[in-house]
Amino acid sequence: MLLHRVVAEDTLPAELVTALRRHRALQNEERPAAGSAWEDWDLVFCQPNGRPIDPRADRAEWGELLQRAGVRHVRVHDGRHTAATLLLEQGVHVRAIQRILGHSDVRTTEAYTHVGDQMTRDAARRMGAALWGE
């Protein structure tokens, strides 16, 4: 578990690590209310008794949040694709993205990243500069 936490702190933005620590502190304050019903699964997000959140309820709540925000429906998992693509667009090396996402094979990471028009235009501009000194 310690290795997992070290890697997470190494691969997450400091602001997110701070927010997650605050969340954990709140969980620890709320834990006594569960009393003997508390089950320690060491989860970041859980039911008030420590057990995993029901995936159906989680999907339903996610859908409600998207609807209230006026955003088209996407799966929670699609956020991983978005994160990978945003990192790639910012020039982060695919191997670093692989580590952040926890993939054992870089080909999986490559499937998560999506190259947009701006990146393609930038690549063409760079190639032009390299070949013709522009």
Question: Would you kindly provide a written description of the structure presented here, covering whatever features stand out?
Answer:
Helices cover 66% and strands 0% of the residues. The chain has 134 residues and is an all-alpha fold. It folds into two domains: 1-53, no CATH class; 76-134, no CATH class. α5 (94-101) crosses α6. It is elongated and about 70 Å long. The protein starts with a helix and ends with a helix. The model has no long low-confidence stretch (mean pLDDT 89). It comes from Pseudonocardia adelaidensis.
Major β-sheet, in short? Answer: none
How would you sum up the global shape?
A: elongated
Overall structural domain count: 2
Q: Give start-end ranges of low-pLDDT stretches.
A: none
Q: What proportion strand? A: under 5%
Query: Termini distance?
Result: 51 Å
- The counted number of beta strands is 0
Mean pLDDT: 89
Order of helices and strands: HHHHHHH
Number of helices: 7
Question: Could you say which structural class the secondary elements and strand pairing correspond to?
Answer: mainly alpha
Computed CA radius of gyration, to the nearest angstrom: 20 Å
Notable traits:
134 residues; mainly alpha; 2 domains; 7 helices; 66% helix; elongated
Write a short abstract of this structure.
The protein contains seven helices and no strands. With 134 residues, it is mainly alpha-helical.
Strand and helix layout:
Elements: H1 2-11, H2 14-34, H3 55-69, H4 78-89, H5 94-101, H6 106-112, H7 117-132
